[in-house]
Amino acid sequence: MGDLKLPSRKENFAEWYNQLVLKAELADYAPVRGCMVVRPYGWALWENIQGALDRRFKATGHVNAAFPLLIPKSFLEKEKEHIEGFSPELAVVTIGGGQQLEEPLIVRPTSETIIGYMYSKWIKSYRDLPVLINQWGSVVRWELRTKLFLRTLEFYWQEGHTAHATAEECEEEALRMLNLYADFAINDASIPVLTGRKSNSEKFAGAVRSYSIEAMMGDTRALQAGTSHDLGQNFAKAFDIQYLDNKNEQQYVWTTSWGLSTRFVGAIIMTHGDDQGLVLPPKLAPIQIVIIPIYKNDAEKSQVMAVVAKVENDLRNFRIKVDSREEFTPGYKFNHWELRGVPLRIEIGPKDVEKGTVAFARRDIPGRDGKTFVPHEQLEMQVAEMLQTIQASIYERALNFRWTNTFDPQSYSELSETVQKGWALSWWCGRSECESKVKEDTKATARCIPFDQPGGSGPCLVCGEQSKEKVIFGRAY
User: Using one digit for the tens of pLDDT, what is the confidence trace for 375-411?
Assistant: First the structure.
């Protein structure tokens, strides 16, 4: 039997997270420093994330394609801001087939450049626009400090790349995809997120404007959970992506890029998890229901397993697992599946067989308070309703946690104190000098300028200048 006990989140949140990822068999460390192996249970969760996003992409007219992993170094050098932003993180291939390469190849950190090159070949007329392409794959960024799922050298993601005829269409697309990410986070992952604009110092290298969804983790740190970028014509001009408009004049296209990665698995773990382990949202959980048979002898086993088989069949439309392992006690199985965050446990013992009931145990409410007994009649409907209840419950809990730990400081000293215990929603003049001072003094960064603004104005808490926007400052992963 493996040790299922975790450190408490309050005692050591970082170690709780690391041990949970390993013990719940979501991922493991690879032999290359900073890389991870995503194990089947973790990959099943990622597959469900992929499915939820892919449906949304296709419903908004996007199609999938695949682009090369290796990019000529000269491509990155075409967009100055882009190469400056990524150069410290690049992995470079200089030898191929035992021979020195004429031109070094970059293992893609992102694909704007190679896709820009291809779009310059494909787009010739206004009739070719818009181009709405997404790809699923992995990228490599040579991070110095790594953490499973949150920041690894290689990580899996989707990256959307679109081309448009006008600046207005381009901006609409960037915002549409940001809102799509927010819809997914809220409705499928039960993670409340703030949508907003990134500051100039925090925006993507080469973008005109960057937008993000920001989530508060269980230790009150922020996590950038998805980003969307209006790239303007920067990459179009760098790669000569031009089209003939309906007036027979050559124009540069306007492009966007947007992405969400396996970092989101980390967001789910740290938003919902507790001291017993994972708490997974039912819509994304690899296993939605686990059935635990309970019996002491062969006679009881025969009765119980007959009911288990019927219940399993009645609930076949859900992602379901029957734990019929005989080498483990029911108590050990309870802990095993609690650690893995299965939303609903169904217990069936001899007394349940007699009464024609089953016991529901909710993962989001451990112990007796989360247990109810339900009759077999309309079991499928009752399970569906319970999963919906759990989905909504963990969202409300996370939302309340964020509200409780978001503050409105009235002075710079108060701001400095606030960001050590949560988020500060503060007036900010927009100047990078003030933003840098907060970062240097507190290690908190400007997470985003929320779209939902209070209106009016107030003094910047750093310099005192009258300001029209509030920004979220917080320590981040």
Answer: 999 999 999 999 999 999 999 999 999 999 999 999 9
Domain that holds residue 349: 289-389
User: How far, in Å, CA of 14 to CA of 270, rounded?
Assistant: 10
d(CA 143, CA 358): 49
Burial 33-64 (b: 16+ CB within 10 A, else e): ebebebeebbbbbbebbbebbeebbeeeebee
| 242/296 same-domain check | no
The answer to whether position 217 is within a domain reads: yes
**At 83, is the pLDDT very low, low, confident or very high (cuts 50, 70, 90)?**
low
Q: What is the mean pLDDT of residues 198-217?
A: 96
User: Between the CA of residue 367 and those of 13, 277, 282, 292, 372, what are the distances in Å?
Assistant: 22, 14, 19, 16, 11
Q: Is the dihedral of CA 179, 251, 84, 446 positive or negative?
A: negative
Helix axes 13-23, 263-272, angle to 10 degrees: 110
CATH of the domain at 412: 3.30.110.30
The Cα-based distances of 297 to 300, 302, 303, 475 in angstroms read 5, 9, 10, 55
Q: What is the pLDDT of residue 474?
A: 98
The C-alpha atoms of residue 229 and residue 247 are separated, in whole angstroms, by 29
Length of the chain: 477
Number of domains in the chain: 3
Say whether both 298 and 164 belong to one domain. Answer: no
CB 193 within 8 A of CB 182: yes
Say if CB 80 and CB 74 are below 8 A apart: no
Torsional class of 367: left (φ above 0), alpha (ψ -120 to 50), beta (otherwise): left
Cα-trace Rg, the chain:
25
What local confidence, expressed as pLDDT, does residue 1 receive? 53
Asked whether the predicted pLDDT for residue 119 surpasses 60, the reply is yes
Contact indicator for 201, 211 with CB cutoff of 8 Å: no
pLDDT grade for 82, boundaries at 50, 70 and 90 = low
CA distance 286 to 48: 7
- Is residue 281 exposed (0-12), middle (13-18) or buried (19+ Cβ within 10 Å)? buried
Tell me: the pLDDT tens digits for 433-442?
Answer: 999 999 999 9
At 305, is the secondary structure helix, strand, or coil?
A: helix
pLDDT-based confidence at residue 144 (cuts at 50, 70, 90)? confident
In a domain, 399, yes or no: no
